[in-house]
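Reviewer comment 2.1 asked that we show a complete input and output for one of the modelled complexes. We chose the uridine-diphosphate-N-acetylglucosamine case, as it is the one discussed in the main text.
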Amino acid sequence: MKKKITFAKHKKTSRNKMILVTGGAGYIGSHTVVELQEQGYDVIIVDDLSNSQINVIDNIRKITTKKTRFEQFNLADNTRTTKFFAENPIDAIIHFAAHKYVGESVKEPLRYYYNNFVSTLNILQAIEKHDIRHFVFSSSCTVYGQADSLPVTEQSPVKPAECPYGNTKQVIEEILQDICLAVAQLQVISLRYFNPIGAHASALIGELPVGVPQNLVPYITQTAIGKRDCLQVFGNDYNTTDGTCLRDYIHVVDLAKAHVVALDRMLNKKMKKNYEVFNIGTGKPSSVLEIIQSFEKASQMPLPYKFVERRKGDIEKIWADTTCANTVLGWKAEKTLDDMIRSAWNWEKALKENNK
Ligand code: UD1
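Response of the prediction step:
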Protein backbone atom coordinates (compact mmCIF):
# COMPACT_ATOMS: atom_id res chain seq x y z
CA MET A 1 0.00 0.00 0.00
CA LYS A 2 1.27 3.47 -0.86
CA LYS A 3 2.30 5.40 2.21
CA LYS A 4 0.56 8.73 2.55
CA ILE A 5 3.07 11.54 2.75
CA THR A 6 2.18 14.47 4.99
CA PHE A 7 4.13 17.67 5.19
CA ALA A 8 4.81 19.11 8.61
CA LYS A 9 3.54 22.67 8.93
CA HIS A 10 6.24 25.26 9.52
CA LYS A 11 6.23 26.05 13.20
CA LYS A 12 6.17 29.77 13.95
CA THR A 13 7.54 29.79 17.47
CA SER A 14 9.57 32.29 19.42
CA ARG A 15 12.14 32.99 16.73
CA ASN A 16 12.36 36.50 15.33
CA LYS A 17 9.82 37.35 12.69
CA MET A 18 11.05 36.42 9.22
CA ILE A 19 10.52 39.19 6.71
CA LEU A 20 10.74 38.56 2.98
CA VAL A 21 12.09 41.65 1.23
CA THR A 22 11.58 41.33 -2.50
CA GLY A 23 13.96 43.57 -4.42
CA GLY A 24 16.09 43.77 -1.27
CA ALA A 25 19.30 44.28 -3.26
CA GLY A 26 17.84 47.40 -4.88
CA TYR A 27 18.10 51.00 -3.81
CA ILE A 28 15.22 51.36 -1.33
CA GLY A 29 15.14 47.63 -0.57
CA SER A 30 18.77 47.46 0.60
CA HIS A 31 18.36 50.41 2.97
CA THR A 32 15.17 48.85 4.33
CA VAL A 33 16.90 45.52 4.95
CA VAL A 34 19.50 47.34 7.06
CA GLU A 35 16.85 49.12 9.14
CA LEU A 36 14.84 45.91 9.61
CA GLN A 37 17.86 43.98 10.81
CA GLU A 38 18.87 46.78 13.13
CA GLN A 39 15.40 46.53 14.69
CA GLY A 40 15.79 42.79 15.26
CA TYR A 41 13.88 41.39 12.31
CA ASP A 42 15.26 38.43 10.39
CA VAL A 43 15.36 39.05 6.68
CA ILE A 44 15.43 36.99 3.55
CA ILE A 45 16.02 38.84 0.31
CA VAL A 46 14.72 37.69 -3.04
CA ASP A 47 16.11 39.66 -5.96
CA ASP A 48 16.86 38.73 -9.56
CA LEU A 49 19.71 41.31 -9.66
CA SER A 50 18.31 42.70 -12.92
CA ASN A 51 18.83 46.24 -11.65
CA SER A 52 21.21 45.66 -8.74
CA GLN A 53 24.49 43.97 -7.92
CA ILE A 54 25.53 41.02 -5.81
CA ASN A 55 28.02 43.03 -3.75
CA VAL A 56 25.09 44.98 -2.28
CA ILE A 57 24.30 41.85 -0.25
CA ASP A 58 27.87 41.72 1.09
CA ASN A 59 27.73 45.41 1.94
CA ILE A 60 24.45 44.99 3.82
CA ARG A 61 26.15 42.24 5.83
CA LYS A 62 29.09 44.55 6.51
CA ILE A 63 26.80 47.26 7.88
CA THR A 64 24.60 45.07 10.06
CA THR A 65 27.07 42.24 10.81
CA LYS A 66 23.98 40.03 10.72
CA LYS A 67 23.11 36.98 8.67
CA THR A 68 21.29 38.17 5.57
CA ARG A 69 19.80 35.34 3.56
CA PHE A 70 19.59 35.88 -0.18
CA GLU A 71 18.03 33.99 -3.07
CA GLN A 72 18.39 35.08 -6.68
CA PHE A 73 15.35 34.59 -8.88
CA ASN A 74 12.58 36.53 -10.57
CA LEU A 75 9.26 36.38 -8.75
CA ALA A 76 7.40 36.32 -12.06
CA ASP A 77 8.66 32.71 -12.28
CA ASN A 78 5.70 30.94 -10.68
CA THR A 79 7.37 27.55 -10.23
CA ARG A 80 10.38 29.04 -8.50
CA THR A 81 8.23 31.34 -6.37
CA THR A 82 5.95 28.49 -5.29
CA LYS A 83 8.99 26.42 -4.31
CA PHE A 84 10.47 29.32 -2.35
CA PHE A 85 7.34 29.82 -0.25
CA ALA A 86 7.00 26.09 0.36
CA GLU A 87 10.53 26.01 1.74
CA ASN A 88 10.59 29.23 3.76
CA PRO A 89 8.30 30.19 6.63
CA ILE A 90 7.58 33.88 6.05
CA ASP A 91 5.78 36.12 8.56
CA ALA A 92 5.55 39.29 6.47
CA ILE A 93 6.50 40.61 3.05
CA ILE A 94 7.80 43.97 1.92
CA HIS A 95 7.43 44.03 -1.84
CA PHE A 96 9.84 46.28 -3.74
CA ALA A 97 10.77 44.07 -6.68
CA ALA A 98 9.55 45.84 -9.82
CA HIS A 99 10.70 47.65 -12.91
CA LYS A 100 10.65 51.34 -12.04
CA TYR A 101 11.55 53.71 -14.86
CA VAL A 102 8.86 55.96 -16.28
CA GLY A 103 10.43 56.49 -19.74
CA GLU A 104 11.43 52.83 -20.16
CA SER A 105 7.90 51.75 -19.27
CA VAL A 106 6.49 53.86 -22.11
CA LYS A 107 8.87 52.16 -24.56
CA GLU A 108 8.41 48.64 -23.21
CA PRO A 109 4.93 48.47 -21.69
CA LEU A 110 4.51 44.71 -22.03
CA ARG A 111 7.75 43.99 -20.20
CA TYR A 112 6.66 46.33 -17.40
CA TYR A 113 3.12 44.97 -17.13
CA TYR A 114 4.29 41.36 -17.26
CA ASN A 115 7.02 41.70 -14.68
CA ASN A 116 5.28 43.98 -12.18
CA PHE A 117 1.88 42.28 -12.31
CA VAL A 118 2.89 38.64 -12.60
CA SER A 119 5.44 38.82 -9.78
CA THR A 120 2.91 40.52 -7.49
CA LEU A 121 0.16 38.02 -8.36
CA ASN A 122 2.51 35.11 -7.72
CA ILE A 123 3.33 36.51 -4.29
CA LEU A 124 -0.35 37.11 -3.51
CA GLN A 125 -1.16 33.51 -4.43
CA ALA A 126 1.57 32.36 -2.05
CA ILE A 127 0.20 34.64 0.66
CA GLU A 128 -3.19 32.98 0.30
CA LYS A 129 -1.77 29.48 0.24
CA HIS A 130 0.50 29.93 3.26
CA ASP A 131 -1.81 32.24 5.21
CA ILE A 132 0.75 35.06 5.37
CA ARG A 133 -1.02 38.05 6.88
CA HIS A 134 1.23 41.08 6.53
CA PHE A 135 2.18 42.82 3.29
CA VAL A 136 3.77 46.22 2.68
CA PHE A 137 3.56 47.53 -0.86
CA SER A 138 5.97 49.92 -2.48
CA SER A 139 3.69 52.46 -4.14
CA SER A 140 4.41 55.92 -5.47
CA CYS A 141 3.23 59.51 -5.54
CA THR A 142 2.95 58.92 -9.27
CA VAL A 143 -0.64 57.74 -8.57
CA TYR A 144 -1.68 61.38 -7.98
CA GLY A 145 -0.48 62.58 -11.41
CA GLN A 146 -0.61 66.40 -11.55
CA ALA A 147 -2.82 67.00 -8.54
CA ASP A 148 -5.30 69.88 -8.66
CA SER A 149 -4.44 71.02 -5.17
CA LEU A 150 -1.22 70.72 -3.20
CA PRO A 151 0.04 69.23 -0.97
CA VAL A 152 -1.57 65.89 -1.75
CA THR A 153 -3.25 63.92 1.00
CA GLU A 154 -4.05 60.23 0.84
CA GLN A 155 -7.61 61.28 -0.09
CA SER A 156 -6.48 63.29 -3.12
CA PRO A 157 -7.88 61.74 -6.30
CA VAL A 158 -5.87 59.10 -8.10
CA LYS A 159 -5.49 60.44 -11.64
CA PRO A 160 -5.34 58.34 -14.82
CA ALA A 161 -1.77 57.05 -15.01
CA GLU A 162 0.62 58.90 -17.33
CA CYS A 163 2.72 55.81 -18.05
CA PRO A 164 2.65 52.01 -17.73
CA TYR A 165 4.93 52.16 -14.66
CA GLY A 166 2.45 54.44 -12.88
CA ASN A 167 -0.41 52.27 -14.03
CA THR A 168 1.15 49.17 -12.44
CA LYS A 169 1.28 51.01 -9.09
CA GLN A 170 -2.35 52.13 -9.36
CA VAL A 171 -3.70 48.75 -10.44
CA ILE A 172 -1.71 46.83 -7.81
CA GLU A 173 -3.09 49.16 -5.14
CA GLU A 174 -6.60 48.33 -6.42
CA ILE A 175 -5.87 44.60 -6.43
CA LEU A 176 -4.66 44.82 -2.85
CA GLN A 177 -7.78 46.70 -1.76
CA ASP A 178 -10.01 44.09 -3.40
CA ILE A 179 -8.17 41.24 -1.73
CA CYS A 180 -8.33 43.00 1.65
CA LEU A 181 -12.10 43.34 1.27
CA ALA A 182 -12.36 39.61 0.64
CA VAL A 183 -9.77 38.39 3.18
CA ALA A 184 -10.34 39.98 6.57
CA GLN A 185 -7.23 38.55 8.24
CA LEU A 186 -4.86 40.01 5.61
CA GLN A 187 -3.24 43.33 6.54
CA VAL A 188 -1.78 45.53 3.82
CA ILE A 189 -0.11 48.93 3.93
CA SER A 190 0.72 50.78 0.71
CA LEU A 191 3.40 53.41 1.12
CA ARG A 192 3.29 56.12 -1.53
CA TYR A 193 6.87 57.32 -1.81
CA PHE A 194 7.76 60.77 -3.00
CA ASN A 195 11.30 61.20 -4.42
CA PRO A 196 13.86 59.07 -2.54
CA ILE A 197 17.45 60.29 -2.75
CA GLY A 198 20.66 59.98 -0.72
CA ALA A 199 22.54 57.01 0.64
CA HIS A 200 23.42 55.18 3.84
CA ALA A 201 25.82 57.03 6.17
CA SER A 202 28.37 54.21 5.79
CA ALA A 203 28.55 54.93 2.02
CA LEU A 204 28.44 51.13 1.58
CA ILE A 205 25.00 51.14 -0.06
CA GLY A 206 23.27 53.75 -2.21
CA GLU A 207 21.63 54.23 -5.58
CA LEU A 208 23.32 52.17 -8.30
CA PRO A 209 21.72 53.06 -11.62
CA VAL A 210 22.52 50.73 -14.49
CA GLY A 211 23.62 52.79 -17.51
CA VAL A 212 22.70 56.45 -17.83
CA PRO A 213 20.79 57.60 -14.74
CA GLN A 214 17.18 58.58 -15.37
CA ASN A 215 16.76 60.35 -12.05
CA LEU A 216 18.05 63.75 -11.04
CA VAL A 217 20.39 63.15 -8.11
CA PRO A 218 22.43 60.26 -9.53
CA TYR A 219 22.77 62.27 -12.75
CA ILE A 220 24.10 65.21 -10.73
CA THR A 221 26.62 63.14 -8.76
CA GLN A 222 27.79 61.28 -11.88
CA THR A 223 28.27 64.62 -13.65
CA ALA A 224 30.31 65.99 -10.77
CA ILE A 225 32.49 62.87 -10.56
CA GLY A 226 33.21 63.17 -14.29
CA LYS A 227 31.15 60.31 -15.71
CA ARG A 228 28.73 62.71 -17.48
CA ASP A 229 29.48 66.03 -19.15
CA CYS A 230 26.61 68.21 -18.11
CA LEU A 231 23.27 67.93 -16.34
CA GLN A 232 20.29 68.78 -18.52
CA VAL A 233 17.63 70.56 -16.53
CA PHE A 234 14.31 69.62 -18.10
CA GLY A 235 12.41 72.89 -18.45
CA ASN A 236 12.72 76.31 -16.78
CA ASP A 237 9.36 77.69 -17.81
CA TYR A 238 7.14 75.90 -15.31
CA ASN A 239 4.75 77.85 -13.12
CA THR A 240 6.98 77.52 -10.03
CA THR A 241 9.20 79.82 -7.97
CA ASP A 242 12.22 79.51 -10.28
CA GLY A 243 10.63 77.88 -13.33
CA THR A 244 11.91 74.36 -12.61
CA CYS A 245 9.79 71.44 -11.35
CA LEU A 246 9.03 70.96 -7.67
CA ARG A 247 9.33 67.59 -5.92
CA ASP A 248 9.27 66.29 -2.36
CA TYR A 249 12.72 64.70 -1.96
CA ILE A 250 13.09 62.29 0.93
CA HIS A 251 16.20 60.66 2.39
CA VAL A 252 16.21 56.96 1.52
CA VAL A 253 17.07 56.07 5.14
CA ASP A 254 14.02 57.97 6.42
CA LEU A 255 11.97 56.14 3.80
CA ALA A 256 13.45 52.78 4.84
CA LYS A 257 12.49 53.49 8.45
CA ALA A 258 8.89 54.10 7.38
CA HIS A 259 8.73 50.45 6.29
CA VAL A 260 9.85 49.24 9.71
CA VAL A 261 7.23 51.44 11.37
CA ALA A 262 4.56 50.13 8.98
CA LEU A 263 5.54 46.55 9.76
CA ASP A 264 5.52 47.20 13.52
CA ARG A 265 2.05 48.71 13.14
CA MET A 266 0.76 45.54 11.50
CA LEU A 267 2.48 43.07 13.76
CA ASN A 268 1.39 44.98 16.87
CA LYS A 269 -2.20 44.93 15.59
CA LYS A 270 -2.52 48.72 15.47
CA MET A 271 -4.17 48.98 12.06
CA LYS A 272 -7.62 50.59 12.02
CA LYS A 273 -8.65 48.91 8.74
CA ASN A 274 -6.95 46.00 7.02
CA TYR A 275 -5.88 48.20 4.09
CA GLU A 276 -4.13 51.49 4.78
CA VAL A 277 -2.18 53.93 2.66
CA PHE A 278 0.34 56.57 3.69
CA ASN A 279 2.24 59.33 1.91
CA ILE A 280 5.94 59.07 2.68
CA GLY A 281 7.66 62.37 2.03
CA THR A 282 8.95 65.38 3.95
CA GLY A 283 6.08 67.70 3.05
CA LYS A 284 8.57 70.24 1.66
CA PRO A 285 8.89 71.00 -2.06
CA SER A 286 12.29 71.67 -3.65
CA SER A 287 13.01 72.83 -7.17
CA VAL A 288 15.62 71.32 -9.49
CA LEU A 289 17.70 74.49 -9.06
CA GLU A 290 17.54 74.15 -5.26
CA ILE A 291 18.86 70.62 -5.57
CA ILE A 292 21.74 71.89 -7.68
CA GLN A 293 22.48 74.64 -5.12
CA SER A 294 22.46 72.12 -2.28
CA PHE A 295 24.81 69.91 -4.28
CA GLU A 296 27.22 72.80 -4.98
CA LYS A 297 27.25 73.57 -1.26
CA ALA A 298 27.93 69.94 -0.30
CA SER A 299 30.64 69.39 -2.90
CA GLN A 300 32.14 72.89 -2.86
CA MET A 301 32.28 72.77 -6.64
CA PRO A 302 30.19 74.24 -9.45
CA LEU A 303 27.96 71.80 -11.33
CA PRO A 304 27.83 72.11 -15.13
CA TYR A 305 24.19 72.28 -16.19
CA LYS A 306 22.05 73.69 -18.97
CA PHE A 307 18.35 74.21 -19.46
CA VAL A 308 16.73 72.07 -22.15
CA GLU A 309 13.16 71.29 -23.24
CA ARG A 310 10.68 69.90 -20.75
CA ARG A 311 10.79 66.11 -20.37
CA LYS A 312 7.68 64.43 -21.73
CA GLY A 313 5.45 63.10 -18.96
CA ASP A 314 6.99 65.22 -16.18
CA ILE A 315 4.54 66.79 -13.80
CA GLU A 316 5.08 70.39 -12.76
CA LYS A 317 4.90 70.09 -9.00
CA ILE A 318 3.99 67.69 -6.28
CA TRP A 319 4.63 67.38 -2.57
CA ALA A 320 3.08 65.45 0.26
CA ASP A 321 0.78 66.25 3.09
CA THR A 322 2.40 63.96 5.66
CA THR A 323 -0.11 64.51 8.48
CA CYS A 324 -1.41 60.97 8.22
CA ALA A 325 2.07 59.40 8.28
CA ASN A 326 3.10 61.67 11.17
CA THR A 327 0.04 61.19 13.37
CA VAL A 328 -1.46 57.81 12.46
CA LEU A 329 1.63 55.87 11.42
CA GLY A 330 3.82 57.71 13.93
CA TRP A 331 6.66 58.30 11.46
CA LYS A 332 8.33 61.55 10.45
CA ALA A 333 11.18 62.30 8.07
CA GLU A 334 14.16 63.61 10.01
CA LYS A 335 16.87 64.42 7.51
CA THR A 336 17.28 67.73 5.69
CA LEU A 337 17.81 68.26 1.99
CA ASP A 338 21.48 69.05 2.65
CA ASP A 339 21.83 65.74 4.58
CA MET A 340 20.35 63.90 1.59
CA ILE A 341 22.59 65.54 -0.97
CA ARG A 342 25.74 65.23 1.16
CA SER A 343 25.15 61.49 1.61
CA ALA A 344 24.52 61.03 -2.13
CA TRP A 345 27.82 62.78 -2.89
CA ASN A 346 29.73 60.73 -0.30
CA TRP A 347 28.31 57.59 -1.89
CA GLU A 348 29.37 58.62 -5.42
CA LYS A 349 32.90 59.39 -4.17
CA ALA A 350 33.08 56.06 -2.33
CA LEU A 351 32.02 54.25 -5.51
CA LYS A 352 34.85 55.91 -7.42
CA GLU A 353 37.31 55.04 -4.66
CA ASN A 354 36.24 51.38 -4.68
CA ASN A 355 36.42 51.11 -8.46
CA LYS A 356 39.99 52.32 -8.63
C1 UD1 B 1 9.54 59.61 -11.33
C2 UD1 B 1 8.19 59.15 -10.82
C3 UD1 B 1 8.35 58.35 -9.56
C4 UD1 B 1 9.29 57.21 -9.80
C5 UD1 B 1 10.63 57.75 -10.27
C6 UD1 B 1 11.53 56.56 -10.56
C7 UD1 B 1 6.34 60.62 -11.33
C8 UD1 B 1 5.58 61.81 -10.92
N1 UD1 B 1 7.36 60.29 -10.53
O1 UD1 B 1 10.01 60.60 -10.46
O2 UD1 B 1 7.10 57.82 -9.18
O3 UD1 B 1 9.46 56.48 -8.63
O4 UD1 B 1 10.44 58.54 -11.44
O5 UD1 B 1 12.22 56.64 -11.71
O6 UD1 B 1 6.06 59.98 -12.31
N2 UD1 B 1 15.39 66.11 -13.95
C9 UD1 B 1 16.23 66.92 -14.70
N3 UD1 B 1 17.28 66.34 -15.33
C10 UD1 B 1 17.57 65.01 -15.25
C11 UD1 B 1 16.70 64.19 -14.47
C12 UD1 B 1 15.62 64.77 -13.84
O7 UD1 B 1 16.01 68.12 -14.80
O8 UD1 B 1 18.53 64.54 -15.85
C13 UD1 B 1 14.26 66.71 -13.23
C14 UD1 B 1 12.92 66.18 -13.67
O9 UD1 B 1 12.41 66.94 -14.74
C15 UD1 B 1 12.11 66.36 -12.39
C16 UD1 B 1 13.12 66.19 -11.27
O10 UD1 B 1 14.39 66.39 -11.87
O11 UD1 B 1 11.61 67.67 -12.31
C17 UD1 B 1 13.08 64.82 -10.63
O12 UD1 B 1 13.13 63.85 -11.67
P1 UD1 B 1 13.41 62.30 -11.36
O13 UD1 B 1 14.53 62.17 -10.39
O14 UD1 B 1 13.54 61.60 -12.65
O15 UD1 B 1 12.11 61.82 -10.59
P2 UD1 B 1 10.57 61.99 -10.99
O16 UD1 B 1 10.38 62.10 -12.44
O17 UD1 B 1 9.99 63.05 -10.13
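The pocket of uridine-diphosphate-N-acetylglucosamine is lined by residues 100-102, 140-142, 166, 195, 214-216, 219, 231-234, 245, 247, 288, 311, 314-315 (CB under 6 Å). We note this here for comparison with the apo prediction described in Section 3.2.
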